[in-house]
Structure formats: structure tokens, C-alpha cells
Amino acid sequence: MPKRIIIAGGNIAGTIVANRLVQKLKDEVEKSDVEIVVLNNTNKHYYLPGQLLMAYGLESPEALVKDESELLDPRIKFLYGDKGTITKIDVNNHSVQTKDGVTHNYDYLVIATGVEYSWEEIPGYKEASVTPYEFDSALKMREELERFQGGTIVVNTAKLPHRCPVAPLEATLILDDYLRKRGIRDKTKIIYTYPVQGVFGRPITNKFMLRLFEERGIEVHSPFNVTQVSPGDKIIESQEGEKIKFDLLISIPPNMGAKVIGDSGIGDRRRWVPTDKFTLRMKDHSDVYVLGDATDLPVSKAGSTADFESYVVAQNIANEIKGNLGIKYYGGDVFCYIATGTDQGTYIRFSYTMNESPPPPSYVHWWGKVMYNKLYWTVTAKATV
Amino acid sequence: MKLSFLCILLNESLKAKSSNIIQRCVNLSSIKIYKELDLTSSSCAGPIGELSSVVDELNPGEAVKVILGDEATVKDIKTWISRRKLKLIQESKEGNKFVLLVGK
Fold this sequence. Notes:
heterodimer, A: FAD/NAD(P)-binding domain, 2 domains, 6-stranded mixed β-sheet, B: 104 residues, 6 strands
């Protein structure tokens, strides 16, 4: 019997780690000593970081979607639809069940089930807002902005942590530049609302961004923990007692781990999977690894995080199977480009032991962001570096 | 995890001299640790951002164990606890790390 590695979930984290694993275990896979299986509910792979640019008309919808089967190495067994939709993860019996009723046993499991948006936590929030976090809503946001002629736009982050932590900053700064270039910035009030004091959780970036927000005339209301939104009156309310009337609301929805994590009883109350911050093993389960947005780690839920983590997970599983490769530890590495306008950007690079040092916004970093997005399909997703 | 002791000697100010140690009797036997949050490394959400969503999930009688790496963050968290009207159940030091038990 070959050793079976199951990757629960596709998209960014699942795809990169699967491709990296097959490279590490090339000989074993070709001799059928190892089988790598990816289970995913769909064959569609969305490049989520690109949706923000699409919402401002800076990226086309077709550039953000490809078939998962085109991205995975052909030596990987890929199941999707009912055959790939996981209904239960049974870590005690080392198996997962899929919607077609099949039980898949594993020697190693990699959980890459990502996040789901829990809109229902805030009454009226989904109905009253547009968001770059969902593909269809990002297109609606583009249309609403095209029609927009002035008024109050509120950018609200519902809850921390959430996927792509810099996106609220980007959404606000691109918006400011977009409105200036359309000649309607002076007719628009932009209000940024955030659950904790400031505009971002990391002190260095927070200070850097507060200065930029001040220069751009963006109002900051924080801490602001949204409790409900009235779609009819267009009013957003906070736990702190504030009520703000808006003409357009751009939302960052509350995030939770995938439903299957809750159904399987392996997550915390927000369905994040307990994960060791260095080994990326699920706590108390040495044959289960977790990466990407699914972990409960206090690191960024970002594509780059999943990429950095994939080196650790792939290396350590390959090391356990082949031996003598050495063990890798995750150092909390994150890299995020931050768009500060429609043609300018900066970036932050940090880890558990290193703080960021964002450079002044420039076209060079915008270009870097755009290129990083373009190269995703051919370089990052295919784990060629 | 159940904490089995009823009273603890709590060093209120971890840099304080021994004469400043305050004895506080805390009923910890009924407190259940819902989750341990290692915030010694800074994250994008920041320590308060990470802690706030976990605190929202706490049930009565539960606490979150927060591990912090520096005194400035301890001070920020304590200010936030006070503003949010939460409870600082216990404060201690493990090696060079600061440990807070926070409840609702």
C-alpha cells in the first residue's frame, strides 16, 4: 500500500503545498510508493488577492479564475464536486469522509480548508454593503463606484483576524486616489472604521499609515466594532455607541474557519484549527499539518503566508517519508504588498523575530504587486521557486 | 484545563520590589482556560486584535491565557481590558514572558 497524503482544500494554500510535495517526493510518487490526493469542493480556483483590484476596475474578472486541475501537477490525484467535498475530518481514525459517502484513509493529512464569511453575525451587513472579498460583490462594487458622484463612503472591518489584513488599508487608499482621478474626491468623505485603536494592528505600519491617511484627508473612527447595519436608512452602528450614515459601505466581513472544521469538532469556537506555530502540526496530532487561513496562529491570513508555510509542511512530510532531508521550522514569515493608490504601493515583510520597514509609496512597488499577481499562476501556484 | 488552587500569591507589578508584592485571593478553581494565545510575536491584527475576537467567544467562567513578550504590550492590554470592562483574573510571569488570564 502506498503512503497516502491527503490535502484537504485547494485554492492558494492547498495547491502550492500539493505541488511542492510532489516535487519533494517525485521518485516515490512515480514508483507508486506515495499517493498525493487533493480534495476540493470545486474545480474553480479564484485568485482572491486580485479581487480588490478588480473592484476598482484595475483587473479583469477573467484574469482571476482558472481550473484547479490545470494548476495541479498531473501526478496529483484531484477529486472535486461531491467526490472532493469533505463532510468530516476524523483525526482519531486518520480518515476524511466526502459527500459521495467515501471514506479516505490517510498517512498524512494537510488541512488547507481556508475561511468562510460569517455575515450572519452582523444583522444587515451583507445586504447593505459591497465587498472585495467576494467575487460577485467585487464586481458590484466596481459598478457602484462607477455610478458614484459624491457623498460618504465608509470602509468597515467587522472583526479581527481576517484574511488579507492589509486589504482594508488598500481598499481605502485606492479609493482615495480613484476618486481624485475622477475629480470627485472633494465631494466625498471617506471614513475608515476599524475594531481596534488606529488603522492597523502592527505599530510600525499603523504609524506609517496614520500619516498617509491624515495627508489624504481620510477620517479614522476606531475602535469601532460594528454591531448592526440598517440597509434602508444606510446607517452603521458600533458597540462603542457610534452611528454613521453612509452612501456606500465597503465591508470586510467577519471570518471563520471552514464549516467542516466545526462539524468535525477539531477547531476552536471560530473554527480555527489549533496549530503549533513552528512545526505547523495540528496540536496533539503528529500526522496532521495545517497551513494558510485555516490555522489559529496569530500570523497574517495571506497568500504569502501560505506560500512560506508550504516549504515547511512539504519538507517535513517528505523528511518523515524519505528521511535525511532535515526538519524545517516556520519562522512567522509574511510578505504583503500594500497598494496605496491606483498606481503606487509599498510593502511589509516581517516574521516572528523581525519587524517591517515599509518603504515610501512608489510606482516600483505597485509594479511589483501587479507582477506578483500575474506570476501567481505560473510561478507561485506551481511552486516553481 | 482546570486550575486547582484557590488562592495565589500574585505579583501585581512584575518589576516591583518584594515589599510591593500584594497578596490577592482569587477563586480560580472554577475558571476554565478556553484558549492559550501566544502573542509574544507581533501579528497583523496586533495583540489586541487577536485577543478581542477570542474574548468575544468566551463563556461565563472561562478565561483566555495570554502570553506576552514585553511590558509595553502588557500595559496596552491592561488598558484595553479596563476600557472593555473585562476582568484581569491573574497576572504572572513565566521566565521572561508575561502571562495574563483574561475573562469577561
